Amino acid sequence: MEKLFLAIFGALFQLARNMVVVGLAVGFGMLLASFLCNIDVQETYSWISGIWHGLFVIPNFFRNLLNPDILYKGIKFSAMYNVFWWTFVIIQIPTYIVFLSKLVIEPISVAISLINE
Predict the structure, then answer these.
(1) Could you tell me the pTM of the whole model?
(2) Distance between CA 46 and CA 91 in Å, rounded?
(3) How big is the chain by its Cα radius of gyration, in Å?
(4) CB neighbours (10 Å) of residue 85?
(5) pLDDT in tens, 97-116
(6) Terminus-to-terminus CA distance in the chain, angstroms?
(7) How far apart are CA 102 and CA 5, in angstroms?
(8) pLDDT, tens digit, for every residue of 18-66?
(9) Which of 3, 56, 98, 115 has CA atoms 20 to 30 A from the CA of 71?
């Protein structure tokens, strides 16, 4: 019983710690995006901006959730902007999913291995 309690407590503690790390990473990304990648409604963006905006799509999306006036994709853009934006979004989203899944799955698998010992 004690082993089960320690395994569950350890997994919950590690999950909480990992969520703090994720929160700090998202917060830092949002701060960095506000300085490096603030999207202007009036500006027409080219392909290089598509790369930049695609790299910061997740932090800008969270900024958009907090303030709908902040954009995560430009409104006026060239065709190549759209191609590069989607290319980098397709690269970024699976990267974030793998990163987050490792942070969640690792504590659970450690707890299961402790229970099975």
Answers:
(1) 0.76
(2) 19
(3) 19
(4) 24
(5) 888 888 878 877 777 777 77
(6) 13
(7) 23
(8) 889 888 988 999 999 999 988 999 999 999 999 999 999 999 999 999 9
(9) 98
For the stretch 14-17, contacts whose Cβ atoms lie closer than 8 Å and that sit 24 or more positions apart, written own/partner, are 14/106, 14/107, 14/110, 15/103, 15/104, 15/107, 15/108
Residue type, 23: G
Q: What are phi and psi of 67, to 5 degrees?
A: -145, 105
Give dist(CA 83, CA 95) in Å, integer. Answer: 19
Identify the three-state secondary structure at position 77: strand
Yes or no: say if 117 and 10 are a contact pair by the CB < 8 Å rule. no
